[in-house]
Amino acid sequence: MTIKITVAEARGIEFIDRDVRLSGWVRTRRDSKGGFSFVEINDGTSLGNIQVIVPQSLPNYETIIKTITPGSSVLIEGIVKKSPAQGQSTEIEATLIELIGESDAATYPLQKKGHSLEFLRSIAHLRVRTNTFGAVARIRNTVSYSIHRFFQENGFIYVHTPIITASDCEGAGQMFRVTVIDADNPPRNNSGKVDYSQDFFGKSSYLTVSGQLNVETYCAGLSKVYTFGPTFRAENSNTSRHAAEFWMIEPEIAFCELSENMAWAEKFLKRLISDVLTERREDIEFFNRTDTTLIETLNNVVSSDFVRLSYTDAVAILEKCGKKFDFKVGWGIDLQSEHERYLTEEHFKSPVILYDYPRTIKPFYMRLNEDGKTVRAMDLLVPRVGEIIGGSEREYRLDLLGERMKEQKLDMEAYRWYADLRRYGSVPHSGFGLGLERALMFITGIGNIRDVIPFPRTTGNCDY
Ligand code: 4AD
Ligand code: MG
After folding, report:
1. Dihedral of CA 64/65/67/73: which sign?
2. What is the pLDDT confidence band of residue 432, given thresholds at 50, 70 and 90?
3. pLDDT tens for residues 280-289?
4. How far is the CA of 115 from the centre of ligand 1 (A)?
5. What DSSP designation does 306 have?
6. Residue with the nearest Cα to atom 6 of ligand 1?
7. pLDDT digits (tens, 9 = 90+) for 235-261
8. 52 Cβ contact list (under 8 Å, min separation 6)
9. Which residues of 135-166 are buried (b: 16+ CB within 10 A; e: fewer)?
């Protein structure tokens, strides 16, 4: 009996001497003089291909073989054999080969020679057929699954927070407006401004920058919760680490103070990395070929304790280090990526959790410290990528929350529901947000956020 298997299965020893059927996309074809063609097939189930040996004796060989070009899709039947060749344990001796979908060799953009990541970005619809993007996609999948496993195993409840919202969680004014108003002919109020009270929701609405405020409400009833969804930021920063649309994981934990929050963040990140190291070994080894210290770095991160350092101590280190930064260091500044990189890559050579930031540079919801100057914020920084997690203990005292909201000129009435959590059974609670793409950059060693998400959205780019 012929069984249907994947390329990943065909590459293992389990199916040796069995009659199998498999399908995939052709990576390469080589015709030998000895009466055979060698066709490499990949179906995305593994990084490596399976080599199929197609004998000239097949009845349709002459008519079909010239159409078996890179990018075409094929159906193969044959027998799995132990391979005498180096670097592969099995190969397939075809007894049947059929072309499913042709691929014009003259125009197919993926040639055997390697392509630059920049070029591949211009063909985002085909790039998943390369080793790099296949590996990224599999690792992204594994990390996503691992995120759910981690939280589910630890008793967290998964909560779906809204994509469309009226509140600006981070208070940074970087939101995309959601509207059905005709931009060419908008209703106007008495002062001549666009009247959003006539818009779909009867008020201004936006794509969410974070699910935190909503998930906090569920935390105040379910104790341990998390969201995992897309978030949007209209940051006009054309960097390799910022996307306008990215995925964020935000746990929120009741009866939890900042130091416990830091422990959760550290344990969580380590778990994601160790799952990839064991479950996506072949893909990680592939990335380790370009970035030869990758596996070593990841292993170190999993096995070492992260440094914990107050913002104030970090600024002191940066001021004393003698290095010339583009942005001058001083207490009260928002740390730039060059400062974060110095701390993780040169000073500590390890991930660092910074905490207790100046109140003036952090959002309204963070708990004020006794010093009155700092808030219980934390940022987890890693080498190369910089900030990968941002979080805090939340301000759970109604009066102090009110003060912070006033300070940041927030409309108290619009956030009344949020303040209610501090009116009825308020508890100390904390949480954080991990940027999925930042985590993937760190795990794969890929330097640009555009290459760890299938269809990147950045300033000026929304092509698909
Ligand atoms: O530090 P951020 O802005 O924190 C929050 O949104 C909090 N509400 C999280 C919370 O406490 N529940 O963002 C969290 C993380 C960052 O550390 C970073 O990894 C990622 O989200 N991030 C981005 N990733 C890609 N592109 C962007 N433009 C990003 N902005 C933030
Ligand atoms: Mg942040």
Report:
1. positive
2. very high
3. 999 999 999 9
4. 31
5. P
6. 210
7. 877 899 999 999 999 999 999 999 999
8. 38, 39, 40, 41, 76, 78, 91, 92, 94, 97
9. bbbbbbebbbebbeebbeeeebeebebeeebb
Could you tell me the distance, in angstroms and rounded to a whole number, from the CA of residue 336 to the centre of ligand 2?
11
Whether the CB-CB separation of 78 and 37 falls below 8 Å is answered with no
Residue 354 has pLDDT above 80, yes or no: yes
Using the atom order of ligand 1, give the atom closest to the CA of residue 380. Answer: 17
CB atoms inside a 10 Å sphere around CB 305? 8
Longest dimension (CA), the chain: 85
Task: Return the ligand 1 atom nearest residue 431 CA.
Answer: 11
Is residue 327 predicted with pLDDT exceeding 80? yes
Tokens of 406: 């006033």
Report the mean per-residue pLDDT for the chain.
Answer: 96
Contact partners, residue 198, CB within 8 Å, separation at least 6:
181, 187
Which ligand has the nearest atom to the CA of 439? 1
pLDDT band at 112 (very low <50, low <70, confident <90, very high): confident
| Interatomic CA distance for residues 461 and 463, integer angstroms | 6
Is the Cβ–Cβ distance between 263 and 378 less than 8 Å? Answer: no
User: Can you tell me the mean pLDDT for 231-238?
Assistant: 89
For the chain, domains (ranges, CATH) are: 3-101 (2.40.50.140), 128-174+209-451 (3.30.930.10)
Cα–ligand 2 centroid distance for 52 (angstroms):
50
pTM score, two decimals?
A: 0.97
Cα(413)–Cα(420) distance, rounded to whole angstroms?
A: 11
Residue with tokens 């009247």: 195
Show Cβ contacts of residue 70 under 8 Å, excluding neighbours closer than 6 positions. 26, 27, 28, 29, 103, 105, 108, 110, 111, 112
